[in-house]
Every structure is written in structure tokens, then in C-alpha cells.
Amino acid sequence: MTEHAERLQRAASGVWRRPPLIRDWRYRLALALAVLVYLVLASWSVEVNWTRVAEGASRGLNFLGAFLQPDFTSRWRDIQQGLLESLTMTLTSTVIGILLAIPVGIGAARNMAPLPIYLFCRSIIAISRTFQEVIIAILFVVMFGFGPLAGMITLAFATIGFMAKLLAEDIEDIDERQVEAIRATGGSWLQLMNYAVQPQVMPRLIGLSLYRLDINFRESAVIGIVGAGGIGATLNTSLSRYEYDTAAAVLLIIIGIVMMTEYLSGYVRKWVQ
Amino acid sequence: MLTLKQLTKRYTTGDKALTSVSLEIPAGQVAALIGPSGAGKSTLIRCVNRLVEPTEGQVFLGDTELTGLSSRQLRRARRRMGMIFQEYALIDRLTVMENVLSGYLGYTGFWRSYFRRYPQPVVQQAFKLLQRVGLENFIDKRADALSGGQRQRVGIARALLQSPEILLVDEPTASLDPKTSRQIMRLIKELCVERQLAAIINIHDVQLAQLFADRIIGLRAGQLVFDGQPEQLDAEILTRIYGEEDWNHASESGDVEEVMDPSVSQNHAQVTLRAASV
Predict the structure, then answer these.
(1) Contact, B102 vs B122, CB < 8 A?
(2) Is the pLDDT of residue B139 over 90?
(3) CB within 8 Å: A184 and B81
(4) pLDDT at A22 (0 to 100)
(5) Does B49 contact chain A (CB < 8 Å)?
(6) What is the reported pLDDT for A41?
(7) Residues B114 and B132 sit within 8 Å (Cβ to Cβ)
(8) Taking CB atoms and an 8 Å cutoff, what residues of chain A touch B83?
(9) Could B107 and A194 be called an inter-chain contact, meaning their C-beta atoms sit closer than 8 Å?
């Protein structure tokens, strides 16, 4: 008797189970075992130097302890300057990045662009997304020297990949009937974009832009460490001077600002729906 | 007005959606296109304004051969064909007024439409159309705030703002309740009479088609199998279009009986139908 007929018979007698993803139970078992074995072996292969951990634990505690008494005052000027640099960098890079990402994103949507343009835009996205911000930042610091300019260009570049990819995916998911309707009126391609596509993707575009704004702020702290200016540079300096209390102050400010943008973006997203 | 010559559509998947369909629709005629799902009704309508590219054959609108137009010329020709859709296909997040005004896109430049600065007579015309379909109080409402019937009326106003010569109507009532369906069909019919518009209406509701169309065109598996008057539809023809079924009983219990019986005159059938709807 075939398996199908067997299932039918069992269902008729009232026994039915959801068909499993992997038909053969032996394969299922083998797969589960293989994953387990790999997990065990992999954890064994990581060497842990327990004496070093014990030593480091106290330093870590020091660091955490500094959080209880952050020092905002003694290096306030540095913090302030870094913060301003970071905010400028964040805002300009986000705006520039998004403005560049919109055409790339439209070009990377298969339902809007002919194949050559699609491939071109997709490769821009791929390049932008392959390299992590820190790597790009190192390159741009080498090209433009230390400071916020390198940081701004880095973040703008990273924003293009992020925004264009998500925008393209959103455009590919739009309701085609609305596009058809505008096409049927005799509207041009630009009018099609403005009437049929833009209203459908706008809420998400705004939401993503705000999300990217707060990612860029966080990233500005990281890329500052490799010399791209901003609050990251301040953080790096204080860490290398072992001024954990100042570092704690910087981190607390970053947390505060990120939380603020988070709250704000949630609010705006609800409002534009 | 509209002439199809040997129109054939083969999709890239190899499925033949239309096989050598020839038709002529004079100005002012409302033709209902009926047939089972997948018969090619939507494809036929979309081949006319080339939302779907026909594979072979020609389409003429008046003297213009639509099938040979460049994309620029096609856009100009599309202005002369208003389209009404099954799921209304309004732009949900735009206002009712913007949706109606979008019917004017083919006549206006990009920046004008981008800033929504339409010429005053056009806005006036749009408002008049909204009044005609009874939605003038809704101009600033977002399209997704309306009910199905209201949305379809906005869709109709949008199509009419194009000042079309023909309406291409794709299943206008498929997502509507029976009463609203009749109101929408009646509205389309009245507007066609008022403006001497030709129309092709895809519809799967045979009774609605009989009630509101001047002519019935039956399509089955991409081929024209019937072309005639609404009162000619009988069990034999319905079988030709849709396949075997007991057409003499409108419902299993048989209480609305013999609506399709050829022995009952069309007028009589219409009267019963109208009476049933009240």
C-alpha cells in the first residue's frame, strides 16, 4: 500500500498528524543529532583562559561601577563637541543617504525598472551592504583624513544600501492594481511613481528613515573609534585614558538619545500610517 | 468604435488566453463579457488598452490602431479609454478628490500633477462627477475610509474624468453585495447612455449582465462562443459558455425557478428579478 493510501486510511479511522517537513524519520533524527554533535564540538573548541577571566572580571566591575558615578563635568567640553559633531554627522548623512537611496531603491525594484538598471542598482546595494560601517570608515579616514567628514560619508554610503534595499522590497510588494489603474489613465512614468507608488511606500519610507537616523547615531559612536570623529572619538579617548567615569557619561548620553529617537520614531510612524 | 481583429494572447508560460477573437462594438453600446473564470475576460479587456500586450491581431479605437502605437502615443490613446476595476484599484492613501483627479493624469504635465495644481475647470468637472455619483461630501476623505460601493463610484468618477469614448470595466461588482452591485451596474449603464459611451463589462453574474447590457458576448477558453442579445441567453447557450449544468434551476430548492428558461420571456424574467430585489 502506498504511503498516501495509508494516511487516508488512518485519517478515516480518526488518526491524523500534520505531514512532517522531512518525510523520513531517520533523516529527521540524523539531522537533529548532527546539529547537536556540531554544537558540542564547537563549544569544546573555544578555549577559555579562566585566570584571565578572573583578572578581567574585576576590571569589568570597575567599568560597571563607573556607571554608578558617571562624570559629565570634567570633560564636558570634549563631550559637547563630540556630541555636536555626531549629531551633525548623523543628520547630514541620513538626509544625503536617503536622497541617494530613493532613486537606487526604485531602480532596484524589479517591477519598476528594466533589467539592466535593476542589476546596476542591486549591485550598488550589494557593495554598500557587504562592508560593515567600520571597514568603510577606515577607508574613508585614509582618504579624507581624521574627522567627521569621513564619518559622514561613511554613514551616507551605508544608508544608501540599507534604505535602497528595504525601499526596493517595499516597492516590489505594492498593490499592482493601483499601478495598473494609474497606467490606464495614460499617466507617465513619473506620474505613476508619484500617484501609484509613493502613497503606498511613504509610511514605511518615513519609518525606515527615522530608524536609520537612530542607527546612524549609534554607528557614529562606533566609527568614531577608528578616527571618523564625533562622540565615538570622545569615547575612545576617555577609554584609552582609563577615565571610565567619563566614558560612562558618554555612553549614558548615547543611550538617552537613542531611546529618545526610538520613542519619537514610534510615534511618528503611527501618525503617518 | 472599438474593433478587435483576430486578437490572440499567448502568455510566456505558453498558456493561450485568447484565440483569434474578433469583435466590433459601436458607440453607445454596453456589451457584457461573460464566461467562466480563466476564460480570458480580463485578458481581453487589458489587451484593448495594452496593460497586457496582445500577441497577435489588431485593436482599433475609432481610426487609431492601438496595437501599433509607440509608448508615448499609447499613453495619449489610453486617455480615451476609461477603466474600472474589480477591487476598485483606488489609491488608498490619497483623498477621494486626488483619486478622481488622477483620471486627468494623461492630459497634464508631471509638475502640475505633482503639486496637485489641476486647472480650475478640471477640478470643477471632477466635483460635478462626484456629485453625479453622490459623493461630493467625501472629497477630502481618504479612499480607504469608504465602503466598497462608494469606492467603486469613485473609480467610476475617475474613469469618467478622462472624458473617455469607451469604458473598460473589469468585474465591477465582484466584491460588492447584490444590492450595491445592481446600483453600480445601473449607474454605469445610465452614464453610458447619458454620454453615449461604449462599454465592455466583464461580469460573472449572468443575471446582472442580462439586466443591464445591450449585448452579451460569451467567452470560453479564450474563444468567442456566443455573441448576441441578452434575451437570447438560454440553457443551451449557457452550457456552451460555461459547460454542463442544470441552468433551469437558479437554486437547489428551486424557489426562484426557471429564470433562465427560454420559454419565459426576457421581460417577464426582468420583472421577476426586479421584484425580487425590492
Answers:
(1) no
(2) yes
(3) yes
(4) 86
(5) yes
(6) 94
(7) no
(8) 181, 184-185
(9) no
Among B165, B155, B224, residue whose Cα is nearest residue B187: B155
How many Å apart are CA A201 and CA A195, to the nearest integer?
Answer: 11
> Each residue of A159-206: pLDDT tens digit?
999 999 999 999 999 999 999 999 999 999 999 999 999 999 999 999
CA dist A22 and A35 (Å) reads 15
* CA separation for the pair B139, B118 (Å, rounded): 15
Q: Name all domains of chain A by residue range, CATH numbers in brackets.
A: 3-45 (no CATH), 72-272 (1.10.3720.10)
Task: Find which of A9-23, A38-52, B132-146 is predicted with most confidence, using mean pLDDT.
Answer: B132-146
Give the model confidence (pLDDT) of B23-57 as tens digits. 999 999 999 999 998 889 999 999 999 999 999 99
pLDDT value at position B250? Answer: 58
**Spatial CA neighbour of A20 closest among A3, A38, A33:** A3
Neighbours of B143 (CB within 10 A): 24
Instruction: Look at B107 and A177 and tell me if their CB atoms are within 8 Å.
Output: no
Q: Which of B89, B86, B85 is nearest to B99 (CA)?
A: B89
C-alpha cell at A114: 528594466
Query: pLDDT at residue B251 above 60?
Result: no
pTM of the complete model: 0.81
Q: What does the pLDDT read at residue B263? A: 44
Q: Are B98 and B105 in contact (CB under 8 A)?
A: no
Which residue type does A219 have? E
* ipTM greater than cut 0.95: no
Spatial strand order of the sheet with B215-220 comes to B81-84, B166-170, B198-202, B30-34, B215-220, B223-228
State how far residue B221 is from chain A, nearest Cα, in angstroms: 24
Query: How much is the pLDDT for B268?
Result: 45
Neighbours of B58 (CB within 10 A): 15
Residues of A in contact with B103 (CB under 8 A): 185
C-alpha cell at A65: 561601577
Mutating which of B49, B85, B93, B111 best tests the A interface, going by the most A Cβ atoms within 10 A? B93
Residue A177 has its nearest CB partner, among B75, B81, B85, at: B85
* CA-closest candidate to residue A154, choices A164, A165, A143, A163: A143
A268 to chain B, minimum CA–CA distance in Å? Answer: 16
Report yes or no: A194 at the B interface, CB cutoff 8 Å.
yes
Domains of chain B, with CATH numbers?
26-43+80-242 (3.40.50.300)
